[in-house]
Design goal:
- The complex is a heterodimer of chains A (123) and B (199).
- Chain A contains six helices and no strands.
- By secondary structure, chain A is an all-alpha fold.
- The mean pLDDT of chain A is 73.
- With 199 residues, chain B is mainly alpha-helical.
- In chain B, α9 crosses α10.
- The chains are: A mainly alpha (123), B mainly alpha (199).
């Protein structure tokens, strides 16, 4: 019956001793604790700066990628002729063509079929 | 453009979640000030070394601020002790591995040129602090706590000294409430036996 009360007494004494030991830490230890605390608290702002640096790199990469795509597209547009230009070139060719060439143009479907069925090679 | 928009949104969200953290920096500092000395003593009782204890407490502070700094202040105590408990567990694991390696290698570490076990601080050895505190009783208590199995020591210190309730202690120690009660009951029995007439 007295056991819990007895426990209570020595536990109280033990926690009081522990409190004393925590209260009476030396100056050097307290200074190190203070530095550790300040460093831990300064941490989120450093993390934000790191995040911003990462975001900057990501944004720069995205811009570079968009620029590269844009330049590539423009280059293709300038090198590859448009359908209209190709049609105009065909018209000029037709004006200068001889009879065989005109025949080829007139029966283009046929020659294509022939080529597909291997008829052209057999003579 | 889309990439830029996404990045700006993410940046705004980060600022929004970071703002209360900055506002609450004072509250976190006050909280850390309240617990840091007890945390140091707890780590010291576990490791037997002031330097190791300081490193572990610093690590715990970093982890706590990084992961839980933005949480409501009421949740901080069990979370802080949970982080410290985790660091202490890691430290014990590393010590066990190191101990196994020493046994396996079967030789003295010649590089050190001294017996590391003999050189390890003895918590029973009275330091100036212990002499100032309460003499024999304090030394005996430190020794008895140091000799307890880690889980028992943590249960005793968190429940009896730090004043966490059973649920908070269980959260800090990442175990069930039943385990906390078992560890605590064994700790009390062991301490009662080893302290005897000292307290």
């Amino acid at each position: 019956m007295n056991e819990p009360r007895k426990d209570e007494a020595w536990i109280e004494r033990a926690t009081a001793l522990l409190d004393d030991s925590a209260k009476n830490l030396d100056a050097s230890t307290l200074s190190r604790l203070n530095r550790a605390r300040q460093a831990a608290l300064a941490q989120p702002r450093q993390a934000t700066r790191r995040w911003m640096l990462g975001a900057g790199f990501a944004a720069a990469s995205a811009c570079a990628l968009v620029l590269a795509f844009g330049l590539q597209h423009r280059w293709h547009a300038s090198v590859a002729p448009s359908h209209e230009a190709a049609a105009q070139a065909d018209d000029v060719d037709l004006l200068n063509a001889d009879d065989d060439t005109l025949d080829l143009y007139e029966n283009l479907d046929f020659y294509a079929w022939l080529d597909a069925h291997g008829g052209g090679t057999s003579g | 453009m889309l990439a830029k928009t996404c990045l700006m949104t993410a940046f705004d969200e980060d600022r929004a979640t970071d703002a209360p953290t900055r506002e609450g920096a004072g509250a976190i500092e006050r909280f850390l000030r309240q617990v840091e000395r007890r945390a140091l003593r707890m780590a010291e009782l576990a490791t037997g070394s002031r330097d190791e204890a300081l490193d572990l407490v610093q690590d715990a502070m970093f982890g706590f601020v990084r992961h839980y700094g933005a949480r409501p202040g009421a949740e901080w105590p069990p979370l802080f002790w949970r982080v410290l408990d985790s660091r202490l567990n890691d430290w014990h694991r590393r010590q066990r591995v190191r101990g196994r390696w020493w046994v396996w290698s079967g030789e003295k570490n010649d590089d050190e040129g001294e017996d590391l076990i003999a050189a390890a601080p003895d918590v029973r050895e009275p330091g100036p602090l212990a002499r100032l505190a309460d003499g024999e009783a304090s030394i005996a208590l430190d020794g008895a706590l140091h000799d307890l199995p880690m889980r028992q020591r943590q249960a005793f210190l968190l429940r009896m000294w730090e004043g966490l309730d059973v649920a908070q202690t269980a959260a800090a120690m990442r175990c069930s409430e039943g385990s906390v009660k078992t560890h605590l009951s064994r700790a009390l029995a062991n301490l009662r036996r080893s302290l005897g007439e000292h307290l």
